[in-house]
Design brief:
With about 220 residues, the chain is mainly alpha-helical. It contains twelve helices and no strands. Helix 4 crosses helix 10. The radius of gyration is 18 Å and the shape is globular. It starts with a helix and ends with a helix.
Length: about 220
Amino acid sequence: MEIIKALISFIIHIDQHLVEIINTFGIWTYVIIFLIVFIETGLVIFPFLPGDSLLFAAGALAVLPGSDLNIFILLIVLWVAAVLGDTVNYHIGKKIGTSIPQDSWLGKVINQEKMDKAEAFFNKHGGKTIFIARFMPFIRTFAPFVAGASRMNYRYFLNYNILGATVWVLLCTLAGYFFGNIPIVKENFSLVVLGIIFVSILPMIFSFIKSRMDNKKAKTK
């Protein structure tokens, strides 16, 4: 429980924690930020790490006078971490996705039936699934794993991986860079982070509602 509370605090107050990290590690902060984004996107068991809020906070801190973060270096570091993370996640899914023990917690989340549905979904909607998933917490971590496990064409996956990473990093980081230090935003940063998280999960909520409505329509026929 304490770990969960600490994690929630880290995500909500990401700006404060990032300032502490910068003050402690200086230029090595790039490595820490790289690892957080890489792990969040690259390892399916870490979907709870901050993504959008970290990019926004990093962008906001990069604009401060005397900051150890340079916006151009930051964008490159985040982009490489995002692309490599999804790539590694895809290959992990391709390697072990179909051999996960069904009685494990991950096996219950990702089983063969869901693999078949995922493959059909990818075939129907194509690579835009990978692109859209970039902007959805948790789904962002699972999507490349499922894409690999369901044997989505890698070149096709890579194109949307790069496109999604580019738009995600530019949008979230530059939003922080240009708007993160506006007084009202800076003074209410925790609320801004919660707002970012809420907006990020909206596609997931709409998808869930649409799925429920479709199921009800199917049952009434």
